[in-house]
Specification:
The structure holds two protein chains of two kinds.
Chain A lengths: L5 H6 L6 H21 L7 H23 L7 H22 L1
Helix pairs in contact in A: 2-3
Chain B lengths: L1 H18 L32 H27 L20 H26 L3 H32 L7 H31 L12 H26 L1
Helix pairs in contact in B: 2-5, 2-6, 3-4, 3-6, 4-5, 5-6
The chains are: A mainly alpha, B mainly alpha.
Chain lengths: ~100, ~240
């Protein structure tokens, strides 16, 4: 009987470049912090800034989920299991923020 | 008589073979497995091919998504509902938040997530020293995060006078407090992992590291929640 699981299969994949992901996350964090500080001197509408902050937060969360939590290379079932409540949460936030 | 006895045994064997796969103790490789005595094949119980423990933590994290989304929604609705003059010198409680300090804390939690994946990668390669150092670094960064959050609470409560009596205070402390509790829970879990990593209870190896992977999933989720909180609570 073959006892190999999806997890075992995932381990045979090449690990992503964790350091590159970390740098990307740190740079995005630095950018949104900098933009917040400059927001008073920049003539950018607040709604546009808020949309930018949300987009950057979602980008960072997606990077962590895909590469650090290995959703990109693990079984699609985990993505579905985690993605369904995330979809509900996104709908809820979208309704509250608009 | 002898033929009748044989038929009786065959019927009993068939009943056992039908029932056995429904019990977890069923072992297809057991010498008591009667499959080989019959011409037909009995299929094992259906499975997703996933580890139960890993599937379990993902199901738990899925429930946590809904838990935190409700707390965030609660904050988004209530935090701007305080009457004018509820806070000294500012219009809303959000203006009292220390963004540079929180940006630093966000970076610290991001770094702790990075050290967790380094730990997992190290143990998958059986690099024990690197694995232990990465776990210790995670403990250090996680502890620092909680320390800075405690300092932020002190500033807000003792210096700025933000209490649970305001809608902003109640929703803010509930949301960030539950996140902090999750970090503290993760740190306790990490200390237990460290005991095992340093040889107590057998240690981890390249073949046995699912415990590290499952802890990592929890820790990264807590990191994701904070990344969202930083934008939704502090910046928007």
């Amino acid at each position: 009987m073959d006892h190999h699981t999806q997890s075992d299969v995932a381990k045979t994949h090449k690990n992503p470049n964790y350091f590159a992901v970390f740098i990307a996350l740190a740079v995005i964090t630095a950018i949104i912090t900098g933009v917040e500080f400059l927001s008073h001197s920049l003539a950018i509408p607040r709604e546009l800034l808020n949309s930018f902050f949300v987009l950057m937060a979602v980008t960072k969360a997606t990077l962590v989920a895909m590469f650090y939590m290995h959703l990109k290379q693990d079984s699609r079932l985990y993505t579905v299991l985690f993605g369904v409540p995330v979809m509900f949460a996104v709908i809820l936030m979208f309704m509250l923020l608009i | 008589m002898a033929i009748g006895h044989k038929n009786q045994l065959d019927i009993r064997s068939k009943i056992i073979i039908i029932l056995m796969p429904h019990f977890s103790c069923y072992d297809a490789a057991s010498p008591f497995n009667l499959e080989e005595n019959l011409s037909h094949t009995v299929h094992p119980p259906p499975t997703l091919g996933l580890d139960n423990r890993k599937f379990g933590i993902w199901a738990f994290l899925a429930s946590e998504v809904l838990f935190f989304s409700v707390l965030i929604a609660n904050f988004l609705v209530l935090s701007k509902q305080d009457p004018a003059g509820a806070f000294h010198g500012v219009a809303t409680g959000r203006e009292l938040l220390n963004i540079p300090l929180t940006a630093l804390n966000t970076f610290i939690l991001l770094t702790s997530s990075f050290t967790v994946v380094l730990a997992l990668q190290a143990i998958q390669r059986d690099e024990q020293l690197k694995f232990r150092l990465a776990l210790l670094a995670t403990l250090l960064f996680g502890g620092t995060f909680i320390g800075i959050q405690a300092f932020e609470y002190y500033q807000l409560i003792a210096v700025e006078g933000v209490g649970m009596g305001t809608l902003f205070g109640a929703s803010f402390f509930t949301l960030t407090g539950f996140h902090g509790a999750h970090v503290i829970g993760g740190l306790i879990w990490l200390i237990i992992l460290l005991f095992k990593a340093f040889g107590l209870q057998g240690g981890f190896s390249a073949q046995d590291n699912l415990g590290v992977e499952i802890f990592g999933l929890y820790w990264h989720f807590v990191d994701i929640v904070w990344l969202l909180l930083f934008s939704l609570v502090y910046l928007i």
